[in-house]
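Quick illustration, no need to memorize.
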Amino acid sequence: PINASDPLDAELGFTLKLDESDLSSKFFARLEGEGIMDSTAMRLSLAEFEWSGQAAEWPFSIRSEGDMAYDAGQGPLTVERLVAALGEMELCARVAGSNLNSVPEIQGRVEIPETSPRRWLEQAGIDLGFSSPEALSLLSGSLDLEYREDRAELSNLNIRLDQSSINGRARLSSVSGLRGDFDVEMDQLDLDLYATEGPGQPQEDAEETNLADINFGYFSGEARLGQLKVGGVVINDVSVKLKSEGDKLDLDPVTASIYGGSMNSSVSLRPRQPDRRFTITHSMDGVQAGPLFEDLMGKPVMTGQGRMSADLSLDRPTGENPLA
């Protein structure tokens, strides 16, 4: 029997099997606590916790590595380390909270131990057809999270994906109002690494997507890329500034250095306008044609400096024939 005045020291365990969903799992927890019948003075600790099992072909588990404690009287919550795994993919979290009875404040850190997304997808029977064995071969990362009232912040983002490193931060000044800003930087991205073998699958005719009710939120920020490689062409110092205001989205400017010259573009999306819902302006100047075509076609088919400018607008960008 459990008495309200007695300290709690209990173990809980059960096995669950659902034939219809092909799910089988085991749950175990050891609880310690005091004042468990008093919602204002209860102190509860999960000294051990593990839920593991199998769903179809996927083994999964959620387990604690350290204490998980909650003090209802003082309001703090502590999770020293919680590990969730699905197949080979793991996600580790550390959480600390305070003032949970009034204005909650939560801080935490999330880590992705080094893993191979490619092996994880292959385990699920998914083959993306990448020709390079290095594509999606490595993933690791970490980030810090904070939340208070209606504000959230993601900082110290550090992601490694194959040959690329991503760093940055993001802030939501109003979670409910979708307002915030961000700053993200990637050192390099080789899209040729993710080229697929053979021709792509034919696309079925798609119906026009209704964008009239879309809400992009109210965000501003900048994304930078040190080097981009695509189709053999190398583009350096890419910078994209984004601003959204409800149903309006602008990428302006989009700048880069390309073969001794410069590129400057802008993109805007206005889905509620009757026409010109999607517009692009693009210009390049001072581009060395010889090195560009040598990388693109394997030989310098022409030399000299190139200049180009172009504008494009679409009334129905998501229609079956957007250029019609």
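DSSP finds two helices and 18 strands in the chain.
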